[in-house]
Specification:
Length: 166
């Protein structure tokens, strides 16, 4: 009869051990999700307009919202475009992805807005060919965009801030 009492105690100890192990495994698994949460895209309001020049440009203005580091911004379009200021955007240098921080010859970035894109600042796009029906996307990446024409985007965390068709 003494052996039956020992079996019950051993069974109870094993059951408690299994519950503790399962709890620690599930807790570790659940807490690891907090480390892999993707960053939230910045919230901004953007407008666009077409200039009335002989070679029209698309003016994209940051209306309100967070300041954005230009080295994390890029633009894509349904046809190649070149990004810059009203005087530097030139479709001779157009590509399928244009980094806001694009520059040449060690000069400051062509967009001519500083290190951040703030409310009230405008960048310009000069598309190859016809501007009518062009679809444009402004994207924010969690990592800096490297290189120019077309530049490379590291990681999978890119977010579309705005998309519009001219």
């Amino acid at each position: 009869m003494d052996q039956r009492g020992v079996s019950s105690v051993i069974g109870a100890v094993l059951a408690v051990a299994i519950v503790v192990m399962l709890g620690s495994v599930i807790g570790t698994f659940a807490l690891s999700f907090g480390d892999s949460v993707q960053p939230q895209a910045p919230q901004v309001q953007v407008s666009h307009a077409v200039t009335d020049d002989a070679d029209p440009l698309i003016a994209i203005t940051h209306e309100s919202g967070e300041s954005l580091a230009i080295d994390q911004l890029y633009v894509t379009a349904s046809t190649p475009v070149d990004i810059g200021s009203a005087t530097t955007a030139n479709d001779d240098h157009a590509s399928e992805r244009e980094a806001f921080a694009e520059s040449s010859g060690g000069n400051p970035p062509q967009v001519d807005i500083g290190e951040t894109w703030d409310a009230g600042e405008t960048v310009y796009l000069d598309p190859e060919g016809d501007i009518e029906g062009l679809t444009v996307r402004v994207l924010w990446n969690t990592q800096p965009v490297e290189g120019v024409n077309p530049g490379s985007v590291e990681g999978a965390d890119s977010y579309t801030l705005v998309e519009f068709t001219v």
